[in-house]
Structures are given as structure tokens and as C-alpha cells.
From TrEMBL, chain A:
Organism the protein comes from: Alkalibacterium subtropicum
Source taxonomy: Bacteria, Bacillati, Bacillota, Bacilli, Lactobacillales
Any single GO BP term: amino acid transport
Annotated protein name in UniProt: General L-amino acid transport system substrate-binding protein
KW Signal (keyword) present: yes
Domain Solute-binding protein family 3/N-terminal intervals: 51-279
Record-linked Pfam families: SBP_bac_3
Protein family per UniProt: Belongs to the bacterial solute-binding protein 3 family.
Signal peptide extent: 1-23
Cross-referenced InterPro entries: Bact_solute-bind_prot3 (IPR051455), SBP_3_CS (IPR018313), Solute-binding_3/MltF_N (IPR001638)
UniProt KW Signal keyword: yes
UniProtKB/TrEMBL annotation, chain B:
InterPro entries: AA_ABC_transptr_permease_3TM, ArtM/GltK/GlnP/TcyL/YhdX-like, MetI-like, MetI-like_sf
Organism field: Alkalibacterium subtropicum
Family: Belongs to the binding-protein-dependent transport system permease family.
Subcellular location(s) of the protein: Cell membrane
Topology relative to the membrane: Multi-pass membrane protein
Transmembrane segments: 47-73, 93-114, 171-191, 203-227, 248-267, 319-341, 378-396
Ranges for domain ABC transmembrane type-1: 203-393
Any one GO BP annotation for this protein: amino acid transport
NCBIfam families reported in the protein's UniProt record: HEQRo_perm_3TM
Name by which UniProt lists this protein: General L-amino acid transport system permease protein
Main localization (coarse): membrane
Length: 355, 409
């Protein structure tokens, strides 16, 4: 069910009850309710402001969280910083707007944020009905299932008659129902408001298995008291491609977000990193020259400076560096690249050519 | 345990009040052993209950103490700044210290001038400062700032104790304190570097939202309560409609309306930031409940009071504000303070609209990969902190109740 529609309905109900809802308020609602923006509008607004308004998650380990110094950090945050670096030349020119999953789309629709990069799954209805446009997938995720290693559960069929824990109000709950119905498996669900509570219940044996996105399952190993006692099933229950989103209608802004993300992936493919990027500035390879804006004028075509990719890569790092910084082997998560490896390494990350 | 309860009850509830507020305490001249026998080991049933309760209590205490000692608590002290002030810029923290110093001085003055409940407030604040100042990992700078605050409480007390003339200036300063602090925090609209409200967080945000909502909802609640009993139908039915509408909606819904629908209707650039929208939502929500509390007080005033005041020739305004309201408000202090405590705790709901209050900050920190799975320490700390301040509010309300009851005769 589309949350946006739910809130509009809720709003309509409340307003029709309320004696104080003035005609003026409703008039404005009709005008700005289904916001779309004209091409070029967002870029101009961001340039004038000198800051990128970024809709983020403030409590998803690895992807978007706040560190002890009060700074936003994480995989999604760095993607946003790369966009700021490309557009404004400064990765720190970001104004963060932490969004709950309920309010994230409204924040895009009202123009409160320029880019939403908050572990949002790219789906048809969000692309169309909700009125978003998506950039390239920055992280391919999928829903997995964690079970105790000693339980001898190896497939979803083995979960027949068991109790499975999920977080409330997430797509994981719906995916679970869809998959289990399709397989004709009878099971019980137990829902929890909070990931920590869910993990605690799982460890205490209140639920036989629990499910969430695989990245979340892997990161929870850091919390489990005996990580080796638990396994993640091979099967995935859903596709969860996470991508940055912008408001539908501003094609130029969507192009910018798209090509900034591609530039990070392309940089990894070329082996260009934050540290060695200056060595590539006199490269003879025309592909690299075009990427870094030495020739070709690709940035100008986007409405940016020609060195937009240089700025993004030198200030934030290439895709692989960002991944390793927040999710790689040196972090708590040690999340294998899997589908998020470059295509030549068997993954799905593939940049369109810079030409 | 039972014995303590008994003594407390002796202090507060079972004491007899006679004219002039003299309290008679129950005579308690039995020996300690006798008291024990009478209250705890009176027959095998009571003995069994006492033993079971004692075992359970000791078990609980043991578990808590083991937990407290077994954990290093670094997750709390590493993130203490986040928990207290959120993302408030480090370079501007002096503004918060200045506000705190001013508050401390005022608390000291209040204690010195009026004594009474000011004592508990002054000592609670002093103790909290002292605890944080003495914790070994606190930086020297913070300790010095906290020491200054403690000194200011003492200075305020000494001044208030000696110079009784300071009563009026103190009241004026209290009235100016909140606008001044808010101005200081935000930068006086450009005089200092502006600090946007989205950089507020932690306990600071909780206190700001709660304080403004509490102060804002009080006059609104009084007006609504009076309006509901008005003889003018338009006023009366508007107030009834408002109160019942707001009481019929969950607080989360009100917050969502403020947070999501206002920008949707008015466009993204409403000029009202989301902290203000939350404060407005809390104020309007709490006002409806407070109005009902106050209406209870108004209804408890015997009609003789109205008649007597009218017989004296007091007009409607004087009747309401000098005769009826003071008595009505006094009667509902416990209910009102209960409402205020609820507001303080309900501020934690802003976490769902993307603001990081005290609890929301703890939640954020528990999602920092460095501290994954360390949420128990954080939540215990948050609970303890909330408890200290909520209990202080309840304590002050009990004191006010008793001291105002004295004047009643």
C-alpha cells in the first residue's frame, strides 16, 4: 500500500473533521500536492543555496548513522557527499535531513530535500505513483533469513510451522508473506518495532528464524553473542535494489545524480582512487580524460563544471573505496561485495560509458 | 522495604492535618525489633511474603549491580556530548554553558529567597552537575564549567538568603530567561552565528520542546477551560470542539499532521522549521488535556464562592482571575504536573519524525557500528536521567500542593 496515499486520505479525513481548516489552506494543497519540478530548477536552487539538501537515514549501521562527534557518516551519506562535491565542488556542502521511512517521500515531493538517499528500494510504484525518479542502484540488497546453525533448517520449506520474526511496517513483512504463500508454507509471524528487540527475541528462542535485508542480517552478527551459532539461508526472498531518488520531472537533476554515481563506479573500474587520482590527470587514455573532464566537456553538458567527477572522486573516493570504508573487510560488517562487485568481477555494478 | 514505605506514608498520607497546618505524626515509640515483627513477620503468611520479597529484591539488586559493574559504559561517556546537546556546533557550546550558568544562578536565588521546594531543585541540579564533573572521563573544561555552575547556585543562594529585596528582580529574570536562552542558542537572529534548530539534539532538544510546550500550553489550557464553561455559545462550542477533537486524535497523528501535512499544503519553504512544528503540535495537544484538568478544578469550586464574589460587587474578570482560578488551579496541581511530566516524556515521540531528542539520540548511537548491541547501557542511562527530572517535578508539585494547602486553613 502506498503510504503517501494513506497520509493524504488521513489528512483529508482530519481536515474535513476540523472546523478550522480554511479554504485557503486546501487551495494551496491542491496546487502543490503532486509536486513535480521543471528541468533545471533543482540545480539552480542548489547552486543558489550553496548547499545540497540531502534526505538520509540517521540510524542504519553502515549506511547512514551519526558518529560520536555528531557527524553523519555511512555508505549512503558518502554517495550524497559525492553529489555535493560534483555539483558544488565541496563534499561538506551538505545539509542533512534525517528522515523516517514514513516521511521520506513527502520530503522529496515537497522539495524539502534535493536527493533522497536513504536505503530506498527502487520499485515501479515509487518510480511512477509516488512521483520519484531513481538514479543508478548504489547497493543491490535482498531479503534473507537467519536461523540457528543447529536447527538443520536449510531451505524455506524447512520453516513450515515455525515462528518467524520481522520488523513491523517494512516491506520485508510483505515479501515474507508473498514468498511463503507462493511456496504454500504455513508459518507464524511475530512482529517487532525495533531491530534490537527482534534480535534479542531471536537469541532468546522466542522466534525460530528472523528475516530482514541481507545487509542487515550480516551487520547483526556484530550484535549476536555467538555469531558462529547462526547462519543465513542461501535463498533470498526478494530483490532490494537501493538507489538514490529525486523528484520526478527534473530530468537534468536526475541526469546529474545518475552520472555522479556512474563516475564513482567507472573510477573503480579504471583503478582511480582518492589518492592516485592526480597521477591520472596526464593519462593518455581518452576514456579517463573524458571522465576526469580534461577533454570532452561532459560536465558542461550536465550543467556542471567539467571536473565534476574529479571533485567527487578526489573528495570522497571511488565506489569501491566508499564500500570498503563503511561495509568492507576492515569494518564490523565485513560484507562481501557479492552482487555489488564490478561486472568484470562477477557483480552487477556497471557504469555506462563516459562519452 | 515495608518499613520504609510505612514511614513515608506516615509522613505524607496518614498524618493528620489540623487547623493552621500543624501536622500530627502518628506516635511511633516501639523499638526497631518490635516494628520489624509487627510489620514484616506478623504470622507465617507475612513472614513468607517478606522472605520472598526480600529474596526477589536482593536478586534484582544483585543483577542490576552486576550489570552496572560488568559493563564499561564507554558507549555512554564517549557519546555524552551527543546525548546532551546532539549536533550543536562545538565552537558555540559556550552559549549553552552561559544559559546553564544563568539558570543555575536563578535556581540558587530562588532557593535563597523562597526556600521550600527550591531546595530540592537546587540540590538535584547541584548533584547532577557534581556527578558529571567528578566522573573521571569528563574533560577538564567541562568539569570547570560544571564547577562554575555549582558555584553560581551557591552564590545565588547566599545572595537570595541575605537580600530579600531580590524577589522581584529574580522573577523578572526568570521571565526573561527562556526568551534570552532561545535567542542565545539560535544567535539572536543574526547577531551571533546562527545555529539552526536541526543542529539541536539530545537532552537539549528534549528540554527545549518540553519547556516551551509546557509554558505555552498553560495559558491556552486555562483559556480553553474557561471557554468551555462560558455562557457564550460560539466560544463554548468552539472550545468543546477543539478539546474533543484533539483528545480524539493520537499524539503521533498530531505530530504527523504538523510534520508532513503542513509542508505538503504550504510547500517546502514554509519558513517554519521542523522543531518549531513539533513544539506547536505538542503545545496544542497538551492544551486540550490541560484544559480538561483545569475544568475539573473549576467544577470543584462551590457556587458559594461565585455568589460571595458577586455579592462583593466584583466584575466577571476579577471574579474569574482573583477568586475562582487561583483556587481551581491549586486544586489541580497534581493533575497538571502529571500532564507536564507526560509532555516531558512524550517528547521522545519526535524520534519518529526524524528529530533526535534524548531517546532518539540514544537510538542513533546504538546504530553506530562502533557500538552495535550496546543499547542496554544507553537506555538505562536515558531512563535514569529521565527519572531524576520527572521525579524532581513530581516532588516539587507535592511540595507546592502542601505549602499552598497551608494557606487554605
Amino acid at each position: 500500500m502506498n503510504k503517501y496515499v494513506k497520509y493524504i486520505l488521513g489528512a483529508a479525513a482530519v481536515l474535513s473533521l476540523s472546523a478550522c481548516a480554511s479554504a485557503e489552506t486546501e487551495g494551496t494543497a491542491a496546487e502543490s500536492g503532486n509536486g513535480t519540478s521543471a528541468s533545471g530548477e533543482t540545480l539552480n536552487a542548489v547552486m543558489d543555496r550553496g548547499e545540497l539538501n540531502l534526505g538520509v537515514n540517521d540510524s542504519l549501521p553502515g549506511f547512514g548513522y551519526v558518529n560520536s562527534d555528531g557527524d553523519y557518516t555511512g555508505f549512503d551519506i558518502d554517495m550524497g557527499k559525492a553529489i555535493a562535491a560534483a555539483v558544488l565542488g565541496d563534499a561538506e556542502a551538505v545539509s542533512y535531513r534525517p528522515l523516517s521511512s514514513q516521511e521520506r517521500f513527502i520530503a522529496v515531493q515537497t522539495g524539502e530535500v534535493d536527493v533522497l538517499i536513504r536505503n530506498t528500494t527502487l520499485t515501479t510504484s515509487r518510480d511512477t505513483d509516488v512521483g520519484l525518479d531513481f538514479g543508478p542502484v548504489t547497493f543491490f540488497d535482498g531479503q534473507g533469513m537467519m536461523v540457528p546453525a543447529a536447527s538443520n533448517i536449510t531451505t524455506l520449506e524447512d520453516l513450515s510451522g515455525m515462528t518467524i520474526g520481522v520488523e513491523t511496517g517494512t516491506t520485508t513483512e510483505l515479501n515474507l508473506a508473498d514468498q511463503m504463500d507462493a511456496l504454500g508454507i504455513e508459518y507464524n509471524t511475530q512482529t517487532y518495532d525495533d531491530r534490537n528487540a527482534l534480535i534479542a527475541a531471536y537469541e532468546a528462542g522466542s522466534v525460530d528464524a528472523w528475516t530482514t535485508d541481507r545487509s542487515g542480517l550480516v551487520s547483526s552478527f556484530a550484535v549476536l553473542s555467538n555469531p558462529s551459532d547462526h547462519v543465513i539461508l542461501e535463498e533470498t526472498l526478494s530483490k532490494e535494489p537501493l538507489a538514490p531518488a529525486v523528484l520526478h520531472g527534473d530530468d537534468q537533476w536526475n541526469d546529474i545524480v545518475t552520472w555522479v554515481v556512474y563516475s564513482l563506479i567507472q573510477a573503480e573500474e579504471f583503478g582511480i582512487t582518492q589518492d592516485n587520482i592526480d597521477d591520472f590527470m596526464d593519462s593518455d587514455n581518452p576514456d579517463i580524460q573524458r571522465l576526469l573532464g580534461i577533454e570532452g566537456g561532459l560536465g558542461t553538458m550536465l550543467g556542471l563544471e567539467d571536473d565534476f567527477a574529479y571533485q567527487a572522486i578526489s573528495q570522497v573516493g571511488n565506489y569501491g573505496e566508499i564500500y570498503d570504508r563503511h561495509l568492507g573487510p576492515d569494518t564490523e560488517f565485513n560484507l562481501p561485495r557479492g552482487m555489488n562487485a564490478l561486472y568484470q568481477n562477477g557483480g552487477l555494478q556497471y557504469s555506462m560509458p563516459f562519452r | 522495604m515495608y518499613m520504609n514505605n510505612y514511614q513515608q506514608e506516615g509522613d505524607y498520607n496518614t498524618s493528620l492535618e489540623v487547623a493552621d497546618g500543624i501536622r500530627l505524626k502518628p506516635v511511633n515509640d516501639s523499638s526497631f525489633a518490635e516494628t520489624l515483627r509487627k510489620n514484616l513477620f506478623d504470622g507465617w503468611k507475612n513472614t513468607l511474603l517478606t522472605l520472598l520479597t526480600a529474596i526477589f529484591s536482593l536478586f534484582l539488586v544483585y543483577q542490576v549491580v552486576t550489570f552496572v559493574l560488568a559493563n564499561s559504559w564507554d558507549v555512554v561517556y564517549d557519546n555524552l556530548r551527543m546525548l546532551m546537546i546532539g549536533q550543536y556546533p562545538v565552537d558555540e557550546v559556550w552559549r549553552l554553558w552561559l544559559s546553564l550558568d544563568l539558570a543555575s544562578l536563578l535556581i540558587g536565588l530562588t532557593y535563597g529567597l523562597w526556600k521550600g521546594a527550591g531546595k530540592s531543585v537546587a540540590f538535584t541540579f547541584g548533584t547532577v552537575y557534581l556527578v558529571f564533573a567528578l566522573i573521571p572521563w569528563t574533560t577538564l573544561n567541562t568539569s570547570l564549567n560544571l564547577a562554575t555552575a555549582i558555584a553560581l547556585i551557591a552564590v545565588g543562594y547566599a545572595a537570595g538568603d541575605k537580600v530579600a529585596k531580590l524577589k522581584l528582580p529574580t522573577l523578572v529574570l526568570w521571565a526573561l530567561f527562556i526568551p534570552f536562552s532561545l535567542g542565545l542558542l539560535t544567535g539572536f537572529g543574526g547577531l551571533l552565528d546562527p545555529v539552526l534548530s536541526r543542529e539541536w539534539g539530545g537532552w537539549l532538544l528534549t528540554v527545549i520542546i518540553a519547556m516551551i510546550s509546557i509554558i505555552g500550553c498553560f495559558p491556552l489550557g486555562v483559556l480553553l477551560a474557561l471557554g468551555r464553561r462560558s455562557s457564550l455559545p460560539v466560544v463554548k462550542y468552539f472550545c468543546i470542539g477543539y478539546i474533543e477533537l484533539v483528545r480524539g486524535i493520537p499524539l503521533i497523528m498530531v505530530l504527523f499532521i504538523g510534520q508532513l501535512l503542513i509542508p505538503l499544503f504550504l510547500g517546502g519553504e514554509t519558513g517554519i522549521d521542523n522543531v518549531s512544528r513539533a513544539i506547536i503540535a505538542y503545545t496544542f495537544f497538551a492544551a486540550a488535556y490541560l484544559a480538561e484538568n483545569i475544568r475539573g478544578g473549576l467544577q470543584s469550586i462551590p457556587s458559594g464562592q461565585y455568589e460571595a464574589a458577586q455579592a462583593l460587587g466584583l466584575n466577571k474578570f476579577k471574579l474569574t482571575f482573583f477568586i475562582i482560578l487561583p483556587q481551581a488551579l491549586k486544586a489541580v496541581i497534581p493533575a497538571m504536573v502529571g500532564q507536564f511530566i507526560t509532555i516531558l516524556k512524550d517528547t521522545s515521540l519526535v524520534a519518529i519524525i526524524g528529530l533526535a531528542d534524548f531517546l532518539g539520540t540514544a537510538r542513533r548511537i546504538s546504530n553506530n557500528p562502533e557500538y552495535l548491541g550496546r543499547y542496554m547501557e544507553l537506555y538505562l542511562f536515558v531512563a535514569a536521567f529521565y527519572f531524576v527530572f520527572c521525579y524532581l517535578m513530581a516532588h516539587v508539585s507535592r511540595y507546592l500542593e502542601r505549602s499552598l494547602a497551608k494557606g487554605n486553613g
